[in-house]
Structures are given as structure tokens and as C-alpha cells.
Amino acid sequence: IMEKSNFKLLSDEEYDVAQSGKYLLNLPIKVDESKLDKKLLTTYFKEHPHDNLPTFADKYIIFRRGIGFDRTTDYFVMEKVDVLISRVWRLLQRVTRIDRLFSKKPQSKSRNDIKKT
After folding, report:
1. pTM more than 0.70
2. How far apart are CA 89 and CA 14, in angstroms?
3. Could you give the CA distance from residue 19 to residue 40 in angstroms, rounded to a whole number?
4. Of the candidates 10, 71, 79, 87, which lies 20 to 30 Å from 22 by C-alpha distance?
5. Could you tell me if 52 and 13 are in contact, meaning their C-beta atoms sit under 8 angstroms apart?
6. pLDDT for 71 beyond 70
7. Residue 43 and residue 49: Cα distance in Å, rounded?
């Protein structure tokens, strides 16, 4: 779920950058580490290995979002319907030549008005 929402696990390098003040990681949070279950995350990461895990990954994990490209995955049904409607409308205008009625361009002069020299 977190990966589909474009959240990534924070690495040690990213954590150092965040602590240096380049990220907005200034929330006053204090964790009582004596009450944490160290076996839970250790077991999880043994079964699901990840690269660049932070040193505190056995106690808690931090997710980041907003670095890199934003990716969206969906069927985009309404966007596809909109494209289809616009293409059909353009085809209908071209076939019926109704676009001439709504055109702002002045009609060109007929060839009969041209003088022969």
C-alpha cells in the first residue's frame, strides 16, 4: 500500500540530509525504545529484504515521499472517454463541414472575381 502511494523507506543517507535541516523533519517526537518490539521489524526485513535500510530499522521505520517523479497508476476511464469524444467530434465536423460555420476566418473570394490578363 505504501509503495503504491509513492512512499519509500528512508535510508541512512536521506536521514542525515533530513537531520541537517534540508527536510522538514522538525517534529518533536520522543520514542521510548524500551517499549518497542525489536523482533517484529527484524523478522519482517529478514523475510522481505530491502536495500539501504537505516541503522534504526530494527526499532522503527520512517517513510518519505516527494522526492523524484510523481507516478500515478489508474485506468483513467474519464480521460479516455474525453479523448474519444473529442476525436469523434472532430471527425463529425470534418465530414459535415460544420466547422466552416463556426470558423472565425473570412471566406476566401471566389475564383470568378480574378481578372484575366
Report:
1. no
2. 50
3. 26
4. 71
5. yes
6. no
7. 10
